[in-house]
Amino acid sequence: MVDYFRFIGPILGVMEPEAAHGLTLWALKKGLVPSPEPFEDPVLKVRLWGMDFANPVGLAAGFDKNGELAEALLGQGFGFIEVGSVTPRPQPGQSKPRLFRLFSDHALINRMGFNNDGQEVMAEHLGKRQRPGIVGVNLGRNQGSAAPIADFVAGARTLAGVADYLAVNVSSPNTPGLRALQGRDRLSGLLEAVLAARNAAPPPDRPPLLLKIAPDLTEADKKDIAEVAVAAGIDGLIATNTTIGRPTGMTSPSRTQAGGLSGRPLFEPSTGVLADMYRLTQGKLPLIGVGGIETARHAYAKIRAGASLVQLYTALIFHGPGLVNRIKRDLAQLIRADGFGSVAAAVGADHR
Ligand SMILES: Cc1cc2nc3c(=O)[nH]c(=O)nc-3n(C[C@H](O)[C@H](O)[C@H](O)COP(=O)(O)O)c2cc1C
User: Fold this and answer.
1) Residue 60 alpha carbon, nearest atom of ligand 1
2) What's the rounded Cα separation, in Å, for the pair 277 and 275?
3) CA distances, 144 to each of 114, 169, 178 (Å)
4) Cα 325 to Cα 283: distance, rounded to the nearest angstrom
5) pLDDT in tens, the chain (352 residues)
6) Among the four 44, 97, 192, 306, which has the fewest Cβ within 10 Å?
7) Catalytic residue among 172, 262, 270, 308
8) Residues of the domain holding 223
């Protein structure tokens, strides 16, 4: 297949970053982004939470904030996609500019601040889905909300019926106070409340509930989160969101911008947190590994560190959607080369 991204990529690269993103969403919506030739390999199949994932490579939250492109995105070869973050009420997010490309670092910095059209619109979009495929919904809270836990509860109530999983996002750095919900007591109250809302839905509408965490956590934070997550009985963790840290060695002029850093420099810290969470939960809680995946080797490293599934976002901006199938092909080889018969067999291999 022609790699059209070789032509369109440089054009998107000189556009203002949000304009480039808007154009990409428009092209996806209009069916102008060709679907790759299907690539399936039995070694990539994952069965988790009673669902069958054709492959473990997912699209991370933040790309499709309103769930309007779930079908087009599934057509790009992802094993699953996560839409959102969505908040109860629509909100514009932070003022622009709020998205920066760090070309020499293969990274992005964003301070979008949960720009989205709200839960009702998300529910409407996802309710119209025809194409089979796994779509998780990432829940956020409104900026300045007086009752943040109620925001997440509302999300679970409104969206449990249209989501294949729900992710409680307490880790985006651009909503003041949000990450404080990762603290032991508040997290426990939050998860209990959201689980109760999820469990109140009729059984077919009770999706798995996951928690998405930051990479910027102390050892005590990680221990607390592991204990609270297991005790509460949630179904998994997503590690990690963007970092407020600025790892050494970055060279792009925009590296000093405020916001969450994603892409290549995030790989090491986020994979470290993923491995820590696997160890702290004794491998009992399924983990989704995300942060800095650019090649199959990165994806495989996350699986060996403890991830049952992986996600990516930033590398797509630099390499285009053809990256998804390249990662799948190479990942299947890496898994076989180590003598594993499935993704599941390789999960956590580095800890054994
Ligand atoms: C522009 C942008 C917007 C994002 N928005 C969200 C969001 O709304 N909710 C969320 O949980 N994560 C969000 N993320 C974080 C990603 O889901 C992911 O955790 C992070 O970018 C690390 O993966 P990557 O290095 O492959 O990009 C966003 C990331 C980017 C780059």
Assistant:
1) 17
2) 5
3) 12, 16, 10
4) 28
5) 557 687 788 888 888 899 888 889 999 899 888 888 889 999 999 999 999 999 999 999 999 999 999 999 999 999 999 999 999 999 999 999 999 999 999 999 999 999 999 999 999 999 999 888 999 999 999 999 999 999 999 999 999 999 999 999 999 898 888 888 888 889 999 999 999 999 999 888 899 999 999 999 999 999 999 999 999 999 999 999 999 999 999 999 999 999 999 999 999 999 999 999 999 999 999 999 999 999 999 999 999 999 999 999 999 999 988 999 999 999 999 999 999 999 999 999 999 9
6) 97
7) 172
8) 5-351
- The total domain count for the chain is 1
Return d(Cα 180, Cα 135) in angstroms, integer: 27
Is 172 marked active-site? yes
- Find the length of the chain: 352
CATH number reported for the structural domain that contains residue 197 in this entry: 3.20.20.70
In sequence order, what DSSP letters do the residues of 213-279 get, joined into one string?
E-S---HHHHHHHHHHHHHHT-SEEEE---BS---TT---GGGGSSSEEEEGGGHHHHHHHHHHHHH
Nearest Cα residue to 313 out of 245, 250, 264, 254: 264
Q: Is the CB of 142 under 6 A from ligand 1?
A: no
